[in-house]
Amino acid sequence: MSAREPTRVQELVAALADQRIDIVRLSYPDLIGIDRGRDILVSHLPTACEHGVAFCRAVYHTSPRGDVVNVPGGLDAGLPDIMVHPDLDTIVPIPWEPGLAWCLAEPADAATGRPCYESPRDLVRRVAADLADAGLTAMVGPELEYFLLDRDESAPVGWRRYADVAGHVYTVGRKSDPDGHLQRTMRHLAGLGIGVSVGNREFDGGQFEINLIHSDALDAADRAWRFKCAVKELAHAEGRLATFMAKPFNDGGGSGFHLHVSCADRNGRNAFDDPAGADGLSDVARHAIAGLLAHAPALTALVNPTINSYKRFGPDTLAPWLVDWGLDNRSAMLRVPPERGAGARLELRLGDASANPYLAVAGTVAAMLLGLRARANPPAPLQGYGYDRARAAVLPMNLTEGLDALAADTELTEVLGKDFVAAFICYKRDEIERFRRYVTDWEFGEYAYGL
């Protein structure tokens, strides 16, 4: 629904009033996926639709700790405004907040009216349109893991893992979730209408995974982002912390963000399926695999976007750190699940849960598109257990290497947009510099007593 159609806006205001909703939460993702927004009274919604809601553009460049990073267009331009308009097609009541509805927003440059080049949502829209020019629609199913933590002032970080019992891998029920967190969360998320399908306790204590259904790229990214926001909000309401940090504890594993991806042709048929093709895969699927392999080093910066991300990598972690693919092989970076026909798809296992869903989806679709354009073919699939440097190239093993790979991949940069890539790299290099200057607990423990 266009935000500029007065009659339809008034009809929506009336419908919200009938539902006893008097506040709309207007929010959008910043460069790294943090939700930025404002609560507005429903009576003010027509004004917000007509004129927009002003935000400082530097919000895109503000760190989780509140540091404003000097990304071009922010501080150097005098902290100008952007204007945010409601996308009324995305408005939905929040089941756990009576009287409140949630609406995604479209940020635009206040001077030109054009979408902000930092906008992750617009990035997905642009890349999906490029793929559509090739006659294909990307279909994406997100899988996200997270840790649920309870407050514990005696713990080193002030938090401990909820229900931290070893061995209950891929289980459900009170033995691994004594407070019923998973079922309660899934019911709330089902009411939000974001396509939740299944959930379970994951490998580590206090770790959960909830999967979402497949849909087109923008809708999938919207739903994955809303999922992360909602899970964190629900945990806060219980006095808990839900974290999508890649690896929050030294003695535990990490949290992944896997994307199941396929393409539909103009007739809605799964374009990855071909019973006559090698391994039951079409040329389109093989080109997509080749594109993901070729651009995996650059893609790493987008789907493993923090300094902490790379502490999840390494032998026997089940976190991919080599550039390889395999047929139903979970030790590969890119897995081809066994289903064919309408279920034919790829599973990119590279990402971690700290990734901005919009950047993860956009980067994945862009890499597949480049493989299609090049008509490239992948090498032979991985056989047996992976993690063998002799058989596959090593991915970037720290954020600096990942950003260097992204900067060097001119083809991927061209598809994603040079301005977006420059802003992302600038922001992330500042993050590295801030960490470089910070004295960690490890350094104190290692050096303070013995030296």
Description:
This protein starts with 5 loop residues before the first helix and ends with a helix. It is an alpha+beta fold and 451 residues long. A hairpin with a 7-residue loop joins strand 7 and strand 8. It is globular. It is built from twelve helices and 18 strands. The protein has helices at residues 6-18, 45-51, 120-133, 181-192, 217-237, 283-294, 296-303, 357-374, 399-408, 410-416, 418-436, 441-447; strands at 23-29, 35-41, 53-56, 81-86, 92-93, 100-109, 137-151, 159-161, 196-201, 207-212, 215-216, 241-243, 257-264, 322-323, 325-327, 334-336, 346-348, 393-394. Helix 1 packs antiparallel against helix 2 (45-51). The longest helix has 21 residues, at 217-237. The chain has two domains: 6-118, Roll (Ubiquitin-like (UB roll)); 126-416, Glutamine synthetase/guanido kinase, catalytic domain (Creatine Kinase, Chain A, domain 2, 2-Layer Sandwich), CATH 3.30.590.10. The mean pLDDT is 93.
What's the short version?
Helices cover about 35% and strands about 20% of the residues.
Order of helices and strands: HEEHEEEEHEEHEEEHEEHHEEEEHEHHHH
- Give the DSSP E fraction (strand runs of 2 or more residues): 15-25%
Fill in the CATH topology of the largest domain: Creatine Kinase, Chain A, domain 2
Rg calculated over all Cα atoms: 22 Å
* Low-pLDDT segments: none
Strand count:
18
Structural class computed from helices and strand pairing: alpha+beta
